[in-house]
Amino acid sequence: PAPARPPETSGTINGDAADGDDGWRFECLDGSGPVVCSPALTARAGFDPNAGNAISRAPKLSRDEGFGESVRMSIQVSVPLPTGTLSPALAFWWNGSNERLFPVEIGTFGGFDSEGRPDRARPMDTLIGAGGERNYVYCLPPWTHGAVVDLSFSLPDDGRTDAVELTVDDVRVVSDDRCSDFEGLFDRGFESAPNRWLGASIGSADQRVNMKPEPAVAHSGNGVLELSYGGESSETPPSADLAMETYVLVPSADETGGPAVALYTDTQVQPSATAEWLLGRAERCRGELPDGGWARTEICLPPEWTGRWHRLKVRVNPPDEAGTGEERFRVLVDDLELLTSPDCPRACP
Question: Which of 35, 91, 109, 290 reaches 20 to 30 Å from 148, CA-CA?
């Protein structure tokens, strides 16, 4: 059964597709770029009268058997500013074909870029179809507060020949008490679990980026973020697409050092993995994730970004032999912290 809905606050135009065609935008893409969705294409985009939650009208993407075009649908979301009684979160219902991947992006964009990706979008999540309906909730980060953002759902051309479909319904902004107190760092201890993490990237249906309410394994508190791969049924080699990203408010340098962010990691299955810390759009730092329990890592932040939000992406590269047995390869992340460090600033290794 679907979980009870949090109280709705504001947010979307026609998020449940009950008021005609307003609010939703559909785009198709073939090898030459964006095209108008038409019956001539194997991809379909539009409203289905019975595909939504409780057999309601809902926006739907689908593709017939055979290789075909990518297709995307998007809707604008107006995010309120948080108050003492309102903590913005995004909720939606969805249903997708089993074991298929459906990228979700959030940001401000007007179409596809030259390579078929949503222009100026930020990765929000990759849905993994389970052949049944699901309800997801995401805390909305501070950079969305008080803004109107585009939310998009895509059906990519993944090279598979079987038919595929994705339906989304009941897109809305809600208030969630677990989404409060995020100044400077967005959900630093992942205490909004079991909500979804806004900023997850995966490359196969064998990979997962999930927040879990597991105090027995968390470094502290109740929540922990798990990046995992493999298991007994895994057929896909490890991929560098296994990642999480967040935004940090860069602190000022002081007499103790330059701005930095620290995090704790725990590699659950040997051998250890390598990781990349991606700062902003281009700067990359590489490091080893030690195994054998929780370990603390400090990452220097650019001092020229003091007082501004800066992207931090943690990309895990599992070793080649990871996830080849019955046990999943797992990296846990917890307790992000903003600080100044005597070792910062320094060049990335």
Answer: 35
Beta strands in 177-303 (DSSP E): 200-201, 207-213, 223-229, 243-249, 258-267, 273-279, 283-289, 295-300
What is the identity of the amino acid at 278?
A: L
- Here the tokens at position 80 are 């309120």
Contact at 8 Å (CB) between 332 and 291?
A: no
Rounded distance between C-alpha atoms, residue 182 and residue 139, angstroms: 10
Cis peptide, bond prior to residue 271, ω within 30 of zero: yes
Q: What is the pLDDT of residues 10-49, one digit of tens each?
A: 556 555 655 555 689 888 876 666 666 766 666 788 999 9
Looking at 129-220, which runs of residues are DSSP E strands? 133-139, 148-155, 164-175, 200-201, 207-213
β-partners of residue 237 are none
The reply to whether the predicted model has a pTM over 0.90 is: no
- Token output for 326: 């019955």
Alpha-carbon separation of residue 336 from 184, 227, 246 (angstroms): 11, 15, 10
Tokens of 146: 């008080």
The structure tokens listed for 201 are 């990237």
